[in-house]
Design a protein that fits this description.
Chain lengths: 153, 93
């Protein structure tokens, strides 16, 4: 565990890092970024907490079983969304034109509308969930292994 | 005998690599751009996404992204499997 200054700054900073990561995930179809990148940003915040506090403190608030379930859920949502449009082709974007995420923006550059792009935003959320849970589990398992503690089931 | 076989295989390998180098696409010249033009022109109408990169990654090349997600899943599974041996050892002892 590092000094009190580092711990206080990390406590204040983690909110901004989490917000920025979720913003990148949510706006993956409008701005550069997406599920993988935003998830990596969120996990970098988790790594910062891991450095500031020790892994024992973090283990109290993160259950590894929950992380595993989150990752599997993300992968499942992704695969199911890929199979939804199987009537036409695999990974057919069936949500374009539907009330949910179905708007089509005017051609050319524009400010962007959040309710566009069909199934791409739900897929970004699924991939983001998957990346956050998976990388957090990996980082936590490595830290716990390095500190000589057993990984909690 | 082994030296001759080694020499022949070496010659075949060198010929393969040199021919590959000579057949390489000339540096700096663009490849045929039919696919790029189609995606740039139609991505916004077909997927409704303002970011063409996102529409390529999740729509036109969604199968590739499924593979990436599978790679991540396998990596996480492997790490968690490897690092959990400590607990099993304690249980058996």
């Amino acid at each position: 565990m590092l000094s009190k200054i580092v711990r206080t700054v990390a406590n204040q900073l983690i909110l901004f890092i989490l917000t920025f990561g979720l913003y990148i995930i949510a706006h993956g179809h409008l701005t550069p970024g997406g599920g993988f990148q935003g998830g990596a940003v969120v996990v970098s915040g988790v790594v910062m907490l891991l450095v500031a506090f020790n892994s024992q403190e973090l283990k109290k608030s993160l259950r590894e079983r929950l992380l595993t379930i989150m990752e599997s859920t993300g992968a499942l949502i992704f695969a199911i969304l890929g199979f939804v449009g199987i009537g036409t082709t695999f990974f057919y974007n069936i949500l374009v034109g539907s009330p949910v995420f179905g708007r089509i923006p005017p051609s050319g550059a524009g400010p962007g509308d959040f309710w566009t792009a069909g199934y791409i935003p739900p897929m970004n959320f699924a991939v983001g969930l998957k990346v956050i849970a998976g990388l957090t589990a990996v980082v936590l398992a490595l830290a716990l292994f390095a500190s000589g503690e057993e990984v909690e089931e | 005998m082994r030296k001759i076989a080694g020499l022949i295989s070496w010659l075949v390998l060198v010929a393969f690599l040199v021919s590959g180098m000579l057949l390489l696409h000339p540096f700096g010249y663009p490849t045929p751009s039919d696919m790029d033009d189609y995606i740039i022109e139609n991505a916004q109408e077909e997927t409704g996404s303002n970011s063409v990169v996102a529409s390529v990654v999740f729509d036109y090349r969604g199968f590739d992204t499924l593979g990436e997600a599978t790679i991540l899943f396998t990596a996480v599974t492997g790490v968690l499997l490897l690092l959990r041996t400590r607990k099993r050892k304690e249980e058996s002892s």
